[in-house]
Each structure stands twice: as C-alpha cells, then as structure tokens.
Amino acid sequence: MFRKLLTFEEAKKTIEEYFKPAFLGDEEAVLLEAYNRVLSEDIISALDIPGFNRSTMDGYAVKAQDTIGADENQPVTLKVTGALNIGEQPQIKVETGEAVEIVTGAPMPEGADAVVMVEDTEHEDSELHVYTAVTSNENVMKKGSDIKKDAVVLKKGQVLGSSEIGVLAALGLKSVKVQKIPVVAVLSTGGEVTELGRELQTGKIYDINAYSISTAVIESGGKPVYFGVVPDDKAALAKVMQTALTSADMVITSGGVSVGPKDYTPQIVDSLGKPGIVVYGIAVKPGKPTTIGFVCDKPVFSLPGHPTSALLIFYLLARPLILRLAGRPTTPMKAVRGFAGARMFSAKGRRTFVMVKLEFDKDCRLIAEPVETGASGAITTLANADGFVEIAENEQFVDADQEVEVTLFRGSAAKV
Amino acid sequence: MFRKLLTFEEAKKTIEEYFKPAFLGDEEAVLLEAYNRVLSEDIISALDIPGFNRSTMDGYAVKAQDTIGADENQPVTLKVTGALNIGEQPQIKVETGEAVEIVTGAPMPEGADAVVMVEDTEHEDSELHVYTAVTSNENVMKKGSDIKKDAVVLKKGQVLGSSEIGVLAALGLKSVKVQKIPVVAVLSTGGEVTELGRELQTGKIYDINAYSISTAVIESGGKPVYFGVVPDDKAALAKVMQTALTSADMVITSGGVSVGPKDYTPQIVDSLGKPGIVVYGIAVKPGKPTTIGFVCDKPVFSLPGHPTSALLIFYLLARPLILRLAGRPTTPMKAVRGFAGARMFSAKGRRTFVMVKLEFDKDCRLIAEPVETGASGAITTLANADGFVEIAENEQFVDADQEVEVTLFRGSAAKV
Fold it and tell me: Pick from A166, A202, A260: which is nearest to B107 by CB?
C-alpha cells in the first residue's frame, strides 16, 4: 500500500481525476417542496402570461384614435357603455366613440386598444370627458408580454428560490422535476467514540463528528444518513462500509485513520472496489491523516478523528463534491479581509489552516484572532472559530497585524 | 372606517406599538432536527470535557521531574512499563523512572503528568532515552479544560449551526428543547386568482403570491400553511380567516385590498377581534393598498395582489415579525453599494422602492439597473430583480450614475 503524502494541490488534482459527478436522477416535487431544490428539466411555458391584453390602470378602455387632440381645454367626450371587473371575461365590445370602465388587471374588451387613467377623466351619467390623449397600447400590458408561450422560462440546473417558485406558480405548475439529493453515509470509527445516549466510560468521548459533519452535509445540499459508531473490528467495519456504499452516493467516516494496527479503514476501502484509496495522507495541518478513495465511482472520505480537523477537511475537500453531486454551483466559501491578531505559525512543509475568531478592534479594524488549538481535539475550538487563515507551504508564519484573508465557515454566526 | 394613509415610518411604528412577540412554546427535537432551530433552554454541561487528562501527542507518559536536564547530549533513560491506547481506561501506574507509551487522545495513566513526544525519544527494548525535558502538564489536555462540568455552554435563543450541534453531541445530548416554528397562514383573495392545477379561464391568473410568499415565509423561519384561494364572497372569506386565525400565529393574505366593493378583507379583520386594522394603506410605491391588523395579538397582513408589490412589502414589514416570533435575530437585509444604471423616479410623496438587477460594467463597477416595472403585475420583474433601491419621500429621483445602496432580496441569485 503506497503511503506518499500528497500536497494539498496534488490531493485536489487527484480527487478531480477520479471524481465522476454522476447525475443521480430526478424526482417529482410539489411546488413548495421544490423550494431550494435543483430543477432537472427546462421549463417551457405552456401559456402566454398575461393570457390576455390587460389594463395596468384604473380608468376607461377606449380606442386610442378617439382621444386624439384631447387636452385640459378641449376634452373629448365618449359614451360609457359598461364596466369591466378583474377576473371577468369581457362580453362587451368598444365601438368608435365609446368607453368601458375598467380596473387594473382586468382584460381589455374587444375594440379597445388603450386605457385612459381615471384621473384624466370626468364621468357624468353615461358621458365621459377625456382630458388627455392616449396612444395605442398605452396602459395596456399585451398578452404574452411577461412570458411568451413556448419560451424557455427556467433552465435545468437552476436552484429554485422564492422568485423561481413564483414563476412556476404563474405557469400553473403544481409540481416540477428536481434532482435527487445525494445521500451521504456518515459513520464514525475508533474505540473511544461512544454513541449519544449511552453512558460515557472513562477514556471515551461522545460521537461529535457524525453530528457536525451531518449538519455540514445538509448545508452542502446533501442528505446525511447516520451509520453509527462502528466497533473496532475489521469484519464489522467492512460490512458497514459495504452497506454504506450500496445505499449511499458518498461515504464519510471519521476517526481511525491516524496510526496503529486498529486503523483498518483504508485497507477495507481498497478491498471493496477499484481504484480504492487514491489519497493517503495530505501535507496539511490540521488534517494530515485524511485518506480519500473511490469505490465504483463513489467517493469515500476518511477524515481525522479530531472534530476541528475533520470539519475543516470536510469543508475544503468533501463539500465541493456533494455540491456537484447535487447539481449545485460550487461557489467558493465566503472570505473577508482582516488583520492577524497574533503571529500565526505554519507547520513546516505543510499547508496550514489557522482557526480564527473575528473581532473588531477599537479602530473598527477586523481582527482575526487565532483560536487556541493546542489541543486540536477541543470541541470549543470548533464552536469559537468563525473561519480560517491559510498559510502556504513555503511560508513560515503570518506576522501579527499583517493583512490576511479569512475564509468563513458556512453557518458561522459571525456577522461581518 | 378610517382610511388615513400612513407614511412608511408611521406604519412601522404602528406595527411596533401593537405587536407582542409572544413566546410560542418549545418542543423536543433530536439533534439533527435541531439543526438551524432556535434553542429554548440554556445548555449546562453535565460533563467535564475531556472527561480525563488526555495526551495531545503520540509519545510517552512520564513524570516531568524525571526529565529535568535531559537534552541531545545528556539523555535521561527511563523504563517503559507498558502502552496505552485511545479509548482505554489505564490500568497502569507510572512510578519514578518509568514511562508508558501513549497515543494522542489516550487518557494519562496515574502518576504521569507530562508526555514526551515520540520524536524526542529513542526506544530500545524496554529502555527509553529522552532527549528533551518536559514540564508538568506539557502535551496534556487537562480534564474539563475544553468544557467544565456545570458551565453554561449554549444559551437560550442561540440558532443551532453545525458547530453548536457538534458541541451538543460532545455533551452526549440526543435531543434538545427548541422554540416552536411560527405557523403562518397564507391565503389568496380576488376573483381572478386560480389555484394551480385548475384550468385557467380568460381573464384569470394563477395564484403566484401564495407560493412566492410561502417560500419567503420559510426563509424567514416560519412554516407556511396554504389556505388556498378564497372565493370572492364575504361569508366564505370570514370563515376562512377565522380558521386561519385560530390555527396559525400570523395570517398573510394577498390581493383584494385595492379598490371596489369586493374588497371585504379589512372589514372582516375588523369584525374578528380587537384592535382590527391598524394600518390602512401606506404611502409607499409599490404596495400602497397594504393593510395590517391585529386580532387578539395575531398579526394579519393583507398584501397587494401584484406579485412584486406583495413580496416587497412582505420583506419590508412581515418578515421581521416572523423572525421575532421564531425567536431569531432580526438582522437587516443585506445591502451592497452600486451605481444607478439609469435615472430612477420616485412617486410623489411616497417612499419609493425601485426594483433593480445588479450587473458589473466594463470597469467592474456594480451597476443597479432598474427592472421594467411598467406592469407591476409582471412576474418576470420578480424573477429578474436582485434587490431594490429606496428613494425617500422628499426626493424626486436618483440620478443615473449616482451611488446607491441596493438592499438584496434573500435567496436572490445575485453573486455579489
């Protein structure tokens, strides 16, 4: 088994080489459930919207030519022959010299091609005095001017926000086809890891990673399925991995890849299918013991046991794959510029990620304060960090007060 | 019935006067379902984390005083008496002159108070040569140093993101108490509005608003419940409103508040309970015919029928109330600075909101291009707008190229 430590860039390139973002298929979703999902079909309008010429003002539907020359001093007088309400199909026709009362949104009656605003008229009995001339189509929204029949309104791959759901409703669609959500199997290994709800024995810790990773999976457009803490036993782990691989689109384990005879995970991944492990350790800090493999095109990430390291590597390397399996754009994580609150050291020859908390100083400068990572197992590191500062392999440190870019964790509470 | 048009600021003040953000109660949620919910209890740690003194390095657990004076030239030699793995309760004790092999994360054995890193040692048979002195507690994470027993770890009102879920998992909590999600009844009125899935008759439109508003309710931390399109009949509407008010925490209707004898909504709200309608029209454009009432402390918003106007007023006035009912912070909508792509006119005496689309020009300046709103019923206006520019009541226009602040719609696809 090869054990060459890859650089961060090599690891990313290797993943790119093996990852085939398969289309996972689609499913029908009723409109409200389609919210925040990814459209998997082009939406072609079966309707003109509006479906009729429509008044955009309260006023009177007229023939524009009847109003030629009308002004404050020389009103044109027309005969009001009826009234049209919104939602009603007009049964009335406007002839030369006639006008029909109309409200905003109501369909134009036959024969009329413009609307005179109510404030430009005076209505006495059946007589209407028009004080302003209108041109053809004035105050009229033409049939199909909003959306044309047969037009492609939304494209496959579009993420459906409120506006898009509004457009789909306008077309009268009760449901649309959306991409399936990638299922991500999340499981934990390591003899010290205890499932929630069980009694904690001395020397053991609760299964933090499965939960922080699962929520990060949700934030990345995936559906986590918890496979529990797998006992430190090769056969048991192989069996769970096999089930995970057949039922999920991707597998993420944490713990159990650091050292020692009990670290079977990579061996099992290799044994389950080709190509097996393709990244065996990465020259990063934290996160060095990460392994990444593919079994029949399904990515398998084995993240370190330390909560901060595991979540960091998840964000850096696993999240983009979930987004792509979900058919979502892989927009980079948001970043802000700030100043280092203290000197930050890098690990020799490794791409280093320093967890930081953001604070404003008294001059309103944004300060990136390193979060205590002496104990990288510390769960509070995770809770306190707003993001991280990246230090390149060939740099020894970032000096205090130096300007830095802080990449923000998604779902971070930082208000910047 | 009073019909005084309030200014935008008066309308906000009036809402503030009548709105009582009641605590809607809480419910138990298992950890993954608690994600993105609002915690409704203080979380006090029942555990020390770590629950034991823990090695933060691979190496050897020793008595620090045994290593005094050790260096490259004068190593100290200790006797290795055993090995400790992660997750195991130590059955071994370190006496003076002894060392125990230990891995990162394993509990410290009794008698040892420091860990010498493996790279600072040489191990021959049962002899360990130590080349560096360590001080007491070096490479040891003390019991409770991450989270202390009885400490308040998370506070009531905290929104639970991935980090917080990780912290709750560390404490072994399978479920927590979270605030109930406010239920918002969404219903549509107006004879022209047709429910999705039905045949569209001439002069009618599909129910866009219920859907765009429902998704905006979700984005605001509420749960929308669709009450359908209510027929244009006073008794029917009164009945539906009554049901909506008893089953939901807030009611949002759209359509049917503009003009004409068919606009019963405000009358019905007034008849259902005190104080009834408190805002009867607002001097804004668009959105003037908005009415807002309270029935037994429950807010009732009647938004205009035009999709863009309805959603705009929702964002400006209804969204903050839903956030507060949900126990969430009412962070202002995000804004960016740009330059007006064209002169934008205000409506005389009314606070004007001009829908804009954001684009970069060739000099990489962010340009706020007004979106065609000639027909404010246009659903494409909604789909094309990234946000809006606000023009004060006493200003006549914003000039082309003038710097403007663009408030962004939530869920907008704009990448800025």
Answer: A202
